[in-house]
Design goal:
The chain has 45 residues and is mainly α. The chain has two helices and no strands. The protein has a domain of 29 residues. The chain is extended. The model has no long low-confidence stretch (mean pLDDT 76).
């Protein structure tokens, strides 16, 4: 098992960088109020 991979986090990051329209709750807030450390891990978007 490769401990350097984080498939769930990578999938979440890729999803955030897709051009999607957030019509769900609380997606319309686009990450406002998200934990700063998690936001830094996911990158700008």
């Amino acid at each position: 098992m490769n401990q350097n991979l984080a498939p769930l986090l990578e999938l979440m990051r890729d999803y955030l960088h897709d051009d999607r329209a957030p019509f769900y709750m609380p997606g319309h807030k686009r990450g406002c109020g998200i934990d700063p450390e998690f936001a830094a891990l996911m990158g700008d978007r």
